[in-house]
Amino acid sequence: MTSKASIIILDDEPNIVEVILARLEVMGFNARGFTRAEGALEALKKEECSVLLTDLKMPDMDGMEVLKRAKGIDPDVEVIIFTAYGSIEGAVEAMKLGAHDYLVKPFEAIELIAKIESAIEKRELKQRVKYLEREVERHIEHHIYAESPVMKKLLELTRQVAKSDATVLILGESGTGKELIARMLHLESNRHDKKYVIMDCGATPSTLIEAELFGYTKGAFTGAMKDKRGIIEEADTGTLFLDEIGNISPEMQTRLLRVLETGQFRAIGQVDQKQVDIRVIAATNVDLRAKVKEGTFREDLFYRLKVITIELPPLRERKEDIIGLARMFLVDFCTKSGKNITGFTKEAIDLLMAHQWPGNIRELKNVIESAVVLCKGDTIDEDVILLTDMHEDAAPVSEGEEDLNPLEVQEKAMVIDALKKANWVQKDAADILGISRRVMHYKIRKFGIQADKKTA
Fold it and tell me: pLDDT tens digits, residue range 143-161?
């Protein structure tokens, strides 16, 4: 419950206002009471208010007009209508015009508090969605979402580094968004209006990398029927992104080092050197330092590449971003498919938050795409999430906690504690935690909690 939420009470009967004020103040709400509509609306203009409680029938202005004016002042304010039994039809009409709910006089305090809490929750959700939309809009150019402190800090570093011509090495697990960061570095650089050329060293056969990078002249080798400009030359004055740089051969490493140090290269079959002005960004999901130690990657090239290093965290270490990313992907796939899916249930969100995402953002994107295809209603629930193949990748962790982060250790302890209190009945334990039985089963499997640990 958001006990510090601000509430405005409007009723032409002072004793009703006083009674409600007393009840709300006891509950910790910041409440103000008014007997005239103009006073309540003026207060709404001057300060943020979560909920406006207003009587439907008043002599100076009826509740319907108050509702319209209040929504004009603050579209997010939630309005609850008080009405007598004989005026319920009017209250229902008010709900059609945007009121959150209505209360029939006389009403119980518990009913009043429940409806206020529901209204506050709805307002907070709307504001949260607006915040996420603003964040999506901020990063839509780069398709990057960041709410977690670690990603916000990383994006600040990326923007700072983008303005220089320094070589950047982007590290991170597969699917963490290394190519998006590389593109952002280019788009926010002084070369943003020049070419951005990508060379995927992981997907290109080693025998073709030299020809792709440096180009060749007609007749340089069998099959060279005409001159071909290489990727390095194509990127002249722009940015060259070398993805999966750890896969290039020792010979290519030597030739690439020369390009980085002098800006010079020679096409296959050509005698004369060519000069280029390029900014190089490289990325890899392998441990280059380990490859240097084993002698499979040149140490001098390694240090030349890592003038600036940007290391992307895996999704499991930036869980604050999971729901924002999921909603961003949901909007994208709904637009493409023509579906109207409004969001996720709490249980579906619990599943998304509990998963370890070994495939990182790429895996999350695939799960949301599958969920959009499989969803038959207007909300994605836990059953839809579990119909995707997400849960199949969630292997149970060992009984030890050495592989868990601090939040997961705490989460596992809470699950075990709930199971103990429920005498190891999963349904009852799920009720204690406020989650569904299916989500409880998922967490038990995720943490490798054994059913026979009743003596734990």
Answer: 688 889 999 999 999 999 9
First to last CA, the chain: 33
Please name each of the domains of the chain with its CATH number: 6-135 (3.40.50.2300), 149-311 (3.40.50.300), 316-393 (1.10.8.60)
Strand segments, DSSP code E, in 140-248 are 168-171, 196-200, 215-216, 228-229, 239-243
**Residue 341 one-letter amino acid:** I
433: nearest Cα among 133, 441, 138, 153: 441
Q: Is residue 172 within 8 Å of residue 178, measured between CB atoms?
A: yes
Q: Where are the alpha helices (DSSP H) in 140-287?
A: 149-162, 178-187, 206-214, 231-234, 250-262
d(CA 31, CA 331): 37
- Cβ atoms of 159 and 153 within 8 Å: the answer is no
In 3D space, the residue among 283, 275, 380, 266 whose CA is nearest the CA of residue 333 turns out to be 380
Half-sphere exposure (CA, 13 Å, Cβ side) for 302? 17
Beta bridge partners of 52: 8, 79
> Distance between CA atoms of 294 and 298, rounded to whole angstroms?
10
Q: Is the dihedral of CA 159, 160, 165, 168 positive or negative?
A: negative
CA distance 231 to 241: 10
pLDDT tier at 418, thresholds 50, 70, 90: confident
Q: Are 198 and 248 in contact (CB under 8 A)?
A: no
In the DSSP assignment, the letter for residue 348 is H
Which pair of tokens denotes residue 106? 């006389």
pLDDT at 27: 84
Q: Rounded distance, CA 109 to CA 139, Å? A: 45
Range of 88-92, 118-122, 138-142, 311-315 with top mean pLDDT = 311-315
The beta-strand segments (E) located in 235-288 are: 239-243, 264-265, 274-275, 279-284
